[in-house]
Specification:
The complex is a heterotrimer of chains A (309), B (178) and C (471).
Chain A: H1 23-42, H2 44-50, E1 56-58, H3 59-65, H4 81-85, E2 95-100, H5 109-118, E3 128-133, E4 139-144, H6 153-157, E5 163-165, E6 171-173, H7 183-187, E7 193-195, E8 223-225, H8 230-234, H9 240-244, E9 250-254, E10 259-261, E11 267-269, H10 270-276, E12 280-282, E13 292-295
Parallel strand pairs in A: 2-13
Antiparallel strand pairs in A: 1-12, 2-9, 3-4, 5-6, 7-8, 9-10, 10-11, 12-13
Chain B: H1 2-23, E1 28-33, E2 39-44, E3 52-58, E4 67-74, E5 80-85, E6 91-100, E7 106-116, H2 137-177
Antiparallel strand pairs in B: 1-2, 2-5, 3-4, 3-6, 6-7
Chain C: H1 2-13, H2 20-30, H3 32-35, H4 40-66, H5 81-105, H6 112-131, H7 133-136, H8 145-148, H9 155-175, H10 178-188, H11 194-202, H12 210-243, H13 255-282, H14 290-320, H15 326-332, H16 337-356, H17 363-390, H18 405-425, H19 434-444, H20 451-461
The chains are: A alpha+beta (309), B alpha+beta (178), C mainly alpha (471).
Bound molecules: iron/sulfur cluster (SF4) (2 copies).
Residues 157-160, 162-163, 173, 178-184, 222-223 of chain A line the site of one iron/sulfur cluster.
């Protein structure tokens, strides 16, 4: 029995809590999905340029098909607070992340900072930097945290509701309930989940009782993964990986206030930043709809509109 | 010698003076509530060589965040530039405008703090609403499956108990008949 | 109304011809395991097997203490040997149950000497397979969370439901045909003993009246009908634990029938091995003849061919377009080539050849084939699970799974538990269904009775059911 799921500010977005969806939005998402597929087909060339066999969905496709919604270049908003209130509730923040691959030099400072903060073993790379090859035979680096999918397959397959999604759009694991079946590891298309395989010194007594948002120390025999450092974010701090990045690759963002910031203090209007830089969602053809966006490329001159003011 | 020094001083001073004049904040910024939820940001450039204006707002959401660009506009013939901006948070918010010259050089800048009271988030419901497997059809499916499971259990246990209860009874009956 | 119905049923099942010599022979043979005192070999075997099981439990406790890394698991090999064990053990159980159920439903009277052994095997293996879920879990003590907080969109919850239902059905399916035998058994052991008391409780005071027989026959028909779709659903749901993920190599529409056929194939094989062992151990050659092995062998070969076909269908559709060839390359020529080709040779070519060749088409040949099939289908499960689990989904290295002494010991304990539990189980229950054997008559064990014989025999022997009885 673990009642801490209902912790304040952590409204669960379980299946049951979802009310009816009004017909309109359903249609929109249907249309947009079809559009996605089209765009995936059309932009095969650009996809290949980014990396062979990598499935990317451009942010613009989504933004353009939601002209009245969040994002787009227009800054127009068509949703009033009243319509948002129906059905699934939206928290006061919707956390997101932008990873600007043009900046990443593969130093893995993010991984190290994350492992230090969460007392992880060396294998537990909650944010892992992959070296990716492109079609030109070059390579670039791609940090991969948990994508905090809006439609998380890991949540659907968890037999005991140990994986859940908060009203701030963060997918968390209740390690007090997890039975360690690892079905979620099978289901996650991003290899973003890590099991606590070993008992031993790497789980020190930090004197802190592990919570849902800050599961430290990790519990043996359960699954852990990137939490987006949601505790940090809620206190106006950046996630460990973002603040440790010497290149300013990782942006923490909030989709409600539409702001994103990296370790250099570069502050951008999230939707505009994504749109202007042609951000992509990785492997969205699984309909996972990640909350992490990638800006493809490596080593280009930046034209980010980001400013230090 | 003294004369030369004096001339140099005057030249230097005049150069400094002119550069001071150039860097002086000749721009102005005003923020007003526009139609609906939007704000009107308008600025005017005091200098004649301003070509474009970039507007910024500063969020206090993340410690260490800076001004973020919220829009750009061309400066018109009377030196004015204007954008409409829909804020995404409330509270005292610093706004800023930078007037740029043709080459992108900064000509004038101005900041202003405005208390934003309305922030209709542009974040739509549809952005996070995905049909979970057990919504609508799935829920019915689950109910049907659970009913089938219950029926199977009932049949299994029913036939088991039928045998367990009936067999001794039948034996008793038979031996009584004998 | 009931009386006509019962009459019809009675026609179907009444004893063909009272044959006292056959009857006593059957009783003696079936009761051999109960009546005789276990020999020295039995004790040696039981203690050795128990040692292995105890070692396995010990290894599991070690694993609980030190984490699952000690069983060779890591983040890229997150599912490996234990889930393969679950699939393999529950698979062979399916074979036992379905062999018995199908033969019962189709009225194959030659089944009579086999049903008890195959149902016992089914019961034992489903219990062991279910138990393997515990070493598979990282937190077995929280297992009941599945009941407390079920998420019905998870395939694992349905696995749990299906396996629980199937276990119940197997247990009932094992017990009900046992009732008449228990009635016989209680008269054969010395009265007043513990076993006599146990038997008389289990026999439910069975007297073998016609109405009792009708009742039992009807209930067994219903359960046979249920157990087949139930077993199909168990293996389908088990396969969906794999197929409902987005992993290349697992996300296959062919998986449910693939798993069902694998289960039937390995199950039939283990039935052959089991009856061979018991035939040898208790000298049942008079009842379990070579023809039984050959018939089961035919069944096994047919299932083997279907399984080979599904394997090809699975790999071809995945590999042809070249989208997800990684795991196929690894399977055919890479890391998993040795186990894969082991399966092809020992799990398909050799057993089918053993069935085809006349020389080896006998009890020994079939048993060798059965052993090969059981082993290689376990290997095949590993080959299905590991390549897809260890593949890199983004980029980088293939993961690898290393067998450790923990996982090997625990798996061997499961393997040893099958003969152990069967040997102990059949110390308490007859080896063959006396009732069914007597029904089938002396011909039944050797070849199927032709309809005419049956009819003739029936006309001779059936007394009209008396009115009181059919009331
Ligand atoms: S990236 Fe993986 S672990 Fe994270 S939410 Fe998506 S499916 Fe779940
Ligand atoms: S390992 Fe834990 S979090 Fe993952 S599916 Fe199983 S119970 Fe859920």
């Amino acid at each position: 029995m673990d009642e801490r799921v209902g912790e304040s500010g952590m409204k669960l977005l379980f299946n049951k809590n979802q009310g009816d969806i009004n017909g309109d939005s359903e249609k929109t998402s249907e249309v947009s999905r079809r559009k996605f597929l089209k765009i995936v087909g059309m932009s095969a060339g650009s996809v290949a340029a980014v990396g062979a066999g990598i499935e990317l969905i451009p942010y613009r496709a989504w933004a353009d098909s939601n002209p009245n919604g969040w994002g787009g270049n227009s800054g127009v908003s068509g949703m009033s607070a009243a319509t948002m209130g129906s059905g699934q509730e939206v928290g006061n923040h919707q956390w997101a992340m932008v990873i600007d691959l043009r900046n990443c030099d593969g130093c893995k400072s993010c991984t190290a900072a994350c492992q230090k903060a969460h007392y992880l073993t060396e294998d537990q790379t909650w944010i892992r930097v992959f070296e990716m090859g492109d079609s030109q035979g070059n390579s670039y680096f791609m940090p991969r945290p948990c994508m905090q999918c809006e439609n998380p397959p890991c949540l659907d397959v968890c037999p005991v509701h140990a994986t859940f999604r908060t009203d701030q759009g963060v997918v968390l694991v209740n390690q007090g309930r997890c039975i360690g079946c690892r079905m979620c590891m099978a289901a996650c298309p991003y290899q973003a989940r890590y099991f606590n395989w070993k008992a031993g010194a790497k789980y020190p007594d930090t004197g802190v009782f592990p919570t849902l948002k800050f599961p430290v120390p990790q519990r043996l025999g359960t699954v852990g993964k990137c939490t987006f450092c949601v505790g940090n974010l809620n206190h106006g701090l950046m996630s460990e990986c973002a603040s440790a990045c010497p290149m300013g690759t990782i942006y923490n963002g909030d989709m409600i206030t539409d702001v994103a910031i990296n370790s250099m203090g570069n502050t951008v209007k999230l939707s505009k930043f994504l749109y202007d830089n042609d951000a992509v969602a990785y492997k969205d053809e699984n309909n996972t709809h990640p909350r992490v966006w990638y800006i493809p490329g490596h080593g280009q001159n930046l034209d980010t509109n980001a400013t230090t003011g | 010698m003294k004369k030369l020094l004096a001339i140099l001083l005057i030249v230097a001073l005049s150069i400094m003076g002119s550069s001071f004049a150039q860097a002086a904040p000749v721009g102005s910024l005003s923020v007003t509530q526009g139609s609906g939820d939007s704000l009107n940001l308008s600025g005017s450039c005091g200098a004649s060589n301003c070509t474009s204006a970039t507007f910024y707002a500063k969020s206090n959401q993340f410690a260490g965040s800076n001004f973020m660009q919220i829009g750009q506009a061309q400066v018109d013939s009377v030196g004015k530039a204007q954008i409409s901006y829909t804020p995404t948070w409330t509270g005292n918010t610093p706004f800023k405008v930078n007037f740029l010259g043709a080459g992108g050089s900064l000509i004038a800048t101005q900041t202003l703090t405005f208390d934003v009271v309305k922030d209709p988030s542009g974040f739509p419901q549809s952005a996070i609403q995905f049909q979970r497997p057990l919504d609508s059809t799935g829920a019915i499916f689950v109910k049907i499956l659970l009913t089938i499971v219950a029926l199977v259990w009932l049949t299994l246990l029913g036939s088991f108990f039928l045998v367990v209860i009936r067999v001794p009874k039948l034996s008793k009956q038979a031996s009584e008949e004998k | 109304m009931t009386s006509t119905l019962e009459k019809k049923e009675i026609d179907k099942i009444t004893v063909i011809a009272p044959d006292p010599s056959w009857e006593s022979e059957v009783r003696e043979a079936a009761m051999r395991s109960i009546v005789t005192k276990p020999g020295k070999n039995w004790w040696i075997a039981v203690s050795l097997l128990s040692l292995v099981v105890v070692a396995g439990v010990g290894a599991w406790i070690y694993q609980l203490k030190h984490g699952m890394n000690s069983a060779g698991y890591n983040d890229q090999a997150f599912w490996a040997v234990y889930i393969a064990d679950v699939v393999a053990f529950i698979g062979v159980s399916y074979g036992g149950a379905v062999v018995s159920a199908i033969l019962r439903l189709s009225g194959q009277s030659w089944r009579a000497p086999l049903t008890r052994l195959s149902e016992g095997m089914a019961l034992v293996t489903v219990l062991i397979g279910g138990a393997f879920i515990f070493p598979h879990l990282g937190r077995p003590e929280r297992f009941l969370n599945i009941v407390a907080y079920p998420n019905f969109s998870s395939p694992l919850v349905w696995d749990f439901i299906a396996i629980a239902t199937y276990t119940l059905a197997t247990a009932i399916f094992f017990y009900l045909p046992l009732i008449p035998d228990m009635a016989v058994a209680k008269n054969l052991v010395d009265t007043g003993g513990k076993r006599a008391r146990l038997f008389s409780i289990l026999s439910l005071n069975w007297m073998g009246t016609k109405r009792q027989r009708v009742l039992l026959h009807r209930v067994l028909t219903i359960i046979s009908l249920i157990i087949i779709p139930l077993a199909v659903s168990v293996h389908s749901v088990l396969s969906w634990a794999f197929a409902l993920t987005s992993r290349p190599g697992w996300m296959e529409s062919v998986f449910p029938p693939y798993f069902v056929i694998a289960a039937l194939y390995s199950g039939t094989a283990l039935v052959i091995v089991t009856i061979y062992a018991f035939r040898k151990g208790y000298k049942l050659e008079r009842f379990i003849t070579d023809r039984h092995f050959v018939r089961l062998g035919y069944m096994m070969a047919a299932l083997g061919l279907v399984y080979a076909y599904l394997t090809v269908a699975d790999m071809l559709t995945e590999g042809y377009t070249g989208i997800t060839t990684g795991w196929i390359q690894q399977t055919i020529t890479g890391k998993y080539a040795i186990p894969f080709w082991f399966y092809v040779i020992a799990g398909e070519i050799v057993p089918i050849a053993l069935v085809v060749m006349k020389k080896t088409r006998n009890a020994t040949g079939m048993t060798v084939a059965g052993v090969l099939v059981v082993i290689s289908l376990w290997v095949k499960r590993i080959v299905i699970i590991l390549p897809a689990a260890t593949q890199p989904l983004i980029s980088g290295q293939w993961g690898s799974y290393h067998f450790t002494w923990v996982s090997i010991t625990v798996t061997l304990a499961g393997v040893a538990a099958i003969p152990l539990l069967l040997m102990i189980l059949f110390r308490f229950i007859p080896l063959m269904s006396i009732d069914e054997m007597e029904d089938a008559g002396p011909l039944g064990s050797i070849e199927q009775i032709s309809k005419e014989t049956l009819k003739a025999a029936r006309e001779e022997s059936i007394p009209e059911p008396s009115k009181e009885e059919s009331k």
